[in-house]
Amino acid sequence: MRHLRVPSAETQDWLALCRSSHWLVTTSGVVRLDGGFRGIPLMENAPDETDACWKGHVHIESEGKGKGPVHWTERLPEALQELPPETWPSAYEIQGDVLIVKLEGAAAVYGESIAEAMLEQLPNIRVICADEGVKGDFRVRDLDIIKTRDGTEHTRTRVREHGHFVWVDPAKAYFSTRLSSEREKTLTSVQNLRIRLDRPLVIADPYAGVGPAFPLLFAEPGLIEGCLAGDLNPDAVDLLRLNIEYWQSRRSDGPLNQVEAICADALQWSDTPSLLGQADVLLVNLPHNSLEHLPDLLPLLRRGEPVLIRGWAIREREHLAEDTDNLQRLLYDHDAKDIVVDLAEIKGFSTSKCFVAFECNFTL
Ligand SMILES: C[S@@+](CC[C@H](N)C(=O)[O-])C[C@H]1O[C@@H](n2cnc3c(N)ncnc32)[C@H](O)[C@@H]1O
Questions:
Q1: Domain-located, residue 169
Q2: Nearest-atom index, ligand 1, CA of 265
Q3: Which of 5, 81, 95, 210 could make a disulfide contact with 239, Cβ separation 3.0–4.6 Å?
Q4: What is the CATH number of the domain that holds 15?
Q5: Whether the predicted pLDDT of 308 surpasses 90
């Protein structure tokens, strides 16, 4: 849990400020820290560490000092606590102040009581939603709002990833924290290409969703000069625009020269002449179709200088060597030179399929 670290003598003043600003986690206590400091537990909505309101005091991650019940099920009505423990969902997902839970079997009947207990236990949560699976072409979650803390009946919220805020709406656009370590690897690969080219880069992400690949790239001074991002889902593009505007405003070296947030089918980007040959880096995250879409995306890459593709796909585990060869052949057939392709499993998907990340370095 995030804590504000303050000198012990200032604890009461900072507690009062955090309480009156609704930033204080009331179910967790003040933590004693080394060197005569105290940690004040902060809600998710509290401004980030760089905000002037903290007067330079740092934020640290520390385990909360629990007060009261340790698990939400202990807050269920007494009669329900008699039911077998396996009645209750054992897992849930949190995005910002939205909690998403699958209510299966007997739990479905007790949705209201579950939501009430969870809201009481988890002070950072505003709304509890039942997860009814995925729906529609954009495979967004079908969420049923069970209960809200403050009457606001929506699921738009902000998550913090690698210290940066990202607007998301789990009922309207795809977002998952599962690829957050991959986004760090993208940063490293982009940094390496930046060193090789000795100039800021242009990044194309035609399946950007709400844009989680970008905050790390925007935040690094001098790393990128352009962002060509898009999605076919108009709701995702609305959030993407909001996010880009926010990340732009936080850049220490001023806004980027070239920014596009495009609502279109990625396969049609290459019909727009102004998008051709612009990108130094291409991100391809449409896991069921990434490799199949790749040929249509190659015209977006800059010619005559080293470029980078990073992508993610769901593939048959026993055909990964073939996939690597096919990627190499595709680039070779497009007259690419100095081709280096790496494709490797990053996690399982089913008994025969796995989730892979691939990276291609080459010059067109
Ligand atoms: C797996 S999500 C990845 C989103 C984002 N890159 C991320 O990592 O969170 C795939 C995204 O591609 C979008 N999409 C699906 N088909 C598309 C297409 N033909 N052109 C552009 N976007 C598409 C979906 O709406 C979805 O937001």
A1: no
A2: 20
A3: 210
A4: 3.30.70
A5: yes
